Amino acid sequence: MLENKTILLGVCGCTPAGRAVDIATSLRSLGAEVKIIPTKNALNFVTPLMLQRASANPIQIDQFDSPVIWDRTYQSWTLDGDLLLIAPASADMLGKLANGIADDLLSTNVLSFEGPKLIAMNMSPMLYRNAAVQRNVQQLAVDGYYFIDNHDSTNPCRMPSVDDVVNEIVDYFHDRD
Question: Please, what are the domains in the chain?
């Protein structure tokens, strides 16, 4: 289903960050190559080893660390990816992206990526209702980011299920192939 597709998976520091392992595993089982870019805060919820094992690829956390494979542009992943997914996406990351702030490896790669960008956000309802967060969500939608629906009208800011996220990616490629 996803053979010859490379999915870039950004992981932010939120409670469901561990679901990134399940998302990567599911995408790989469908034939995709998965490359994970976690934020430093994501590693408070999931370990680098778990992410590496799920993706079968090395991960890099800090854009100024020496990479496993040298890339002088530091953005080869953005050139190779077919789709970029951030799951879970924090309010902090939404704010950075909506305002063009590239101050870590994930935000730099997301802003550099020219392909489709999907977001599976996760935050508290109070944070989600904040006017600034709503402006950021609206701006990202205008900028062409696609938000994956969690099908929960009472709590639209909760991260969608792993199946919903994976199905959204499969549907995206099915509609374009």
Answer: 6-176 (3.40.50.1950)
